[in-house]
Design goal:
With about 70 residues, the protein is mostly loops. It is built from one helix and no strands. It has one helix at about 10-20. The longest helix is centred in the first third of the chain and has 10 residues, at about 10-20. It is rod-shaped. The two termini are about 55 Å apart.
Length: about 70
């Protein structure tokens, strides 16, 4: 199949749906969940993470067990 045209005018779409007896077909419902607004997203960079100096090594375990 090949797309040959797009129908964008609402009045033409309504006439076609009425002719096909599909004018009462409901639209797909909106999703129930949405992501957070873009202005509330937290952006992280390398500087905001913990540094190596902040790590605490448990003396009961050798350093190799953390690698």
């Amino acid at each position: 199949m090949k797309v040959i045209a797009f129908i964008e005018k609402p009045d033409v779409i309504k006439k076609i749906l009425k002719h096909l007896d599909l004018r009462h077909v409901k639209r797909k419902p909106e999703p129930l969940a949405h992501g957070p607004p873009a202005n509330q997203l937290t952006l992280y960079d390398d500087a905001s993470g913990p540094s190596v100096d902040d790590l605490v090594v448990d003396p009961q375990y050798p350093v190799e067990s953390y690698l």
